[in-house]
Specification:
This protein is of the alpha+beta class and about 625 residues long. Helix content is about 25%, strand content about 30%. A hairpin with a 2-residue loop joins strand 28 and strand 29.
Length: about 625
């Protein structure tokens, strides 16, 4: 029992922690008991392990529902099925349980709920393409297979694994070909002629064919056998795309295990419990986009069988048989270009060609196209975006604004008290501006014909993403900084690669009715992905780019976006398609280019996401 002085000291420490956590995570704490507890001074960053925490908590309450441990944080959360369970844990552990860093006691506080940004990996649906076949083999066949791949007393490692210590004392055997853990690949020129896949496995292929006849293959040519003792694991990885066909198969023998999956792009996690004698089929998105691994530990946190909440399970020796089918070619045919090693090699070559022919690409697939579609494009661009309008309304009377890439001039009439000047490359769009009585001039955004420091403000809305290289995008921003006076501000909008920020689809995606179908979970929504067709740009057969499918998520950064235009000829309506070059931006990419474009004379005032666009307000300052 804590003394009154001890209770008071603990209370003060908890209050200080609560203030920090509320500011960092938005957690609302409660003075009254609730079903939710926050461990205020211990989390992943302090070395607290979920299994150790759960083991201690279960001594005082068996109604634990979830444990949520935010990455990189020194706090975590517990939820219970009842307030009484939470009260029991609070009374038994607060200020007394020595699981904190360096043996510090845990500090607990009731809270109103779990932060909405945290997800429970156990409640997440399994990755698309992942299938667990329970009882794929019976106990009799399990023993036959274990005997066929039995490890001797001498531990077996590959030469590469011994050198890199990649296995952390885990025993491994290879059949057919040696799996190289350093590259998650094999050397196809070095088959293991004296170690073929054991014939005891032949029965598996018949079962696989019967249960899943539509798989791309049913007989493998490579097998890796791993023996996991309690406390051993395997780092998260994706088997190299170009090395192996889809799917990858993993058979669990001896005992159960929890495998952890993580989406490469979003960081979303899903935990999958693999029972002994089950077959795991890793195909499609789960094969190509999700890492899979096993955390080294002696206890697993699992869902309570046939009930609610969590419990722990001791690990036992497990033997895994991982079957793979080698690709005959070096080219992967998956549709996940951003994660594919073979496609990255191709795109790297394309990027080099794009760098060499950037000006020509922009001339043919930007300037020429916009001249051809100018009228139709102008007819679809009539509603100013509210946040751009708000920026323009901050201008003072007499201020000079330069709209770089003004298009049809829809922003040039937004503030009658300021002097608004627009510039663009397109003859057709400048003609529209002239017809509306706006002040415009024709120029390239890479060479603005204005004196240094002559503008109070600049805007560049949906322009920079048409420039073909980072150097040219940086040059365009440098020009805006040059013409701005010290203290002047610029607002820049570019198209974002991510069209679903904060789980909200952009208006661009919502125009596709297929994207508006309700799903039971945001995480369950499948990403639209297809193999993009390739088209040459600027008339250069060797320089090709993927063609985007309109109103679907972007799969590439450098791409061609179709503009479809109906034309009438000889009393018939025809549809023409024009391909525009775009570079869609990753998060923080625009901010970095802005900072790189200045000579220590620019600062980022604000950055935000607005309806499928990354946006930055920057200000010119005195050089530091």
């Amino acid at each position: 029992m804590l003394s009154k002085t001890g209770v008071k000291k603990i209370g003060k420490k908890i209050k200080r922690c609560q203030l920090l956590i509320a500011k960092d995570a938005g957690t609302q704490f409660s003075d009254e008991p609730s079903e939710f507890l926050c461990v205020c001074n211990a989390g992943l960053s302090t070395g607290l392990e979920q299994e150790g925490l759960l083991k201690e908590v279960l001594l005082h309450a068996d109604e634990v529902q979830t444990i949520q441990m935010p990455p990189g944080k020194s706090y975590c959360y517990l939820s219970f099925l009842s307030i009484d369970a939470a009260k029991s844990v609070y009374k038994a552990m607060n200020g007394t349980c020595p699981l904190g860093q360096d043996g510090a006691v845990l500090l607990l506080a009731f809270c109103c709920g779990l932060p909405c940004c945290l997800t429970n990996p156990w409640s997440e649906p399994m990755p698309d393409g992942l299938v667990v076949v329970r009882d794929f083999v019976d106990t009799q066949l399990e023993q036959v297979l274990l005997g066929a791949v039995e490890f001797g007393e001498v531990q077996e490692y590959s030469s590469e694994q011994t050198a890199t210590n990649a296995l952390k004392n885990r025993q491994v055997k290879h059949y057919g070909y040696e799996f190289l853990y350093g590259t998650n690949n094999v050397d196809k020129t070095k088959p293991l002629l004296d170690r073929k896949i054991p014939s005891a496995c032949d029965e598996l292929w018949q079962r696989l064919q019967k249960l899943h006849p539509n798989l791309c293959w049913h007989v493998p040519d490579q097998l890796t056998v791993n023996q996991y003792e309690p406390g051993q694991g395997i780092p998260a990885h994706v088997d190299t795309h170009s090395a192996f066909e889809d799917p990858i198969l993993s058979l669990s023998l001896g005992s159960d295990i929890v495998m952890e999956f993580k989406h490469v792009a979003t960081g979303r996690q899903a935990f999958v419990d693999l029972p002994a004698r089950s077959l795991l089929i890793i195909s499609g998105e789960s094969r190509y986009v999700w890492t899979h691994g096993i955390t080294p530990r002696k206890l697993d946190t699992i869902l309570v069988p046939n009930g609610n909440g969590l419990t722990i399970r001791k690990r036992q020796r497990r033997i895994s048989l991982t079957f793979r089918k080698l690709r005959l070619s070096e080219q992967c045919d998956c549709s996940f270009s951003n994660c594919c090693d073979s496609k990255k090699r191709v795109f790297k070559h394309h990027a080099a060609l794009l760098e060499a022919h950037a000006a020509l690409v922009e001339a043919e697939n930007v300037h020429r196209v916009y001249n051809q579609i100018a009228k139709h494009f102008s007819d679809t661009r009539h509603s100013p975006w509210p946040r751009v309008e708000s920026f323009l309304q901050t201008l003072n009377a007499g201020d000079v604004l330069l709209d770089v890439g003004c298009g049809n001039g829809k922003y040039l009439g937004s503030n009658s008290s300021a002097f608004m000047l627009g510039c663009d490359r397109s003859d057709g769009l400048l003609q529209v501006c002239g017809d509306r009585g706006f002040n415009v001039l024709q120029c390239d955004c890479l060479a603005l014909p204005l004196r240094d420091g002559s503008a109070d403000a600049c805007i560049s809305i949906a322009v920079l993403h048409h420039l073909a290289t980072t150097a040219r995008r940086r040059k365009a921003i440098s020009e805006m900084i040059r013409v701005l006076r010290t203290g002047g501000r610029a607002l820049i909008y570019v198209w974002a690669k991510n069209q679903e920020e904060n789980a909200n689809k952009s208006s661009y995606l919502r125009q596709n009715k297929q994207n508006n179908k309700k799903v039971t979970s945001v995480s369950a929504a499948k990403t639209v992905s297809s193999i993009a067709s390739m088209e040459c740009v600027a008339g250069l057969p060797e320089c090709t780019l993927p063609v985007h499918t309109n109103r679907t998520p972007f799969q590439h950064q450098d791409l061609l976006v179709p503009w479809k235009l109906r034309t009438e000829s000889n009393e018939a309506t025809e549809k023409q398609t024009f391909l525009r070059f775009y570079h869609v931006f990753e998060k923080y990419e625009l901010e970095q280019i802005c900072l790189d474009s200045g000579q220590n004379n620019v600062r980022i005032v604000e950055s935000f996401y607005d309806q499928g666009n990354w946006c930055v307000v920057m200000q010119k300052i005195e050089p530091m």
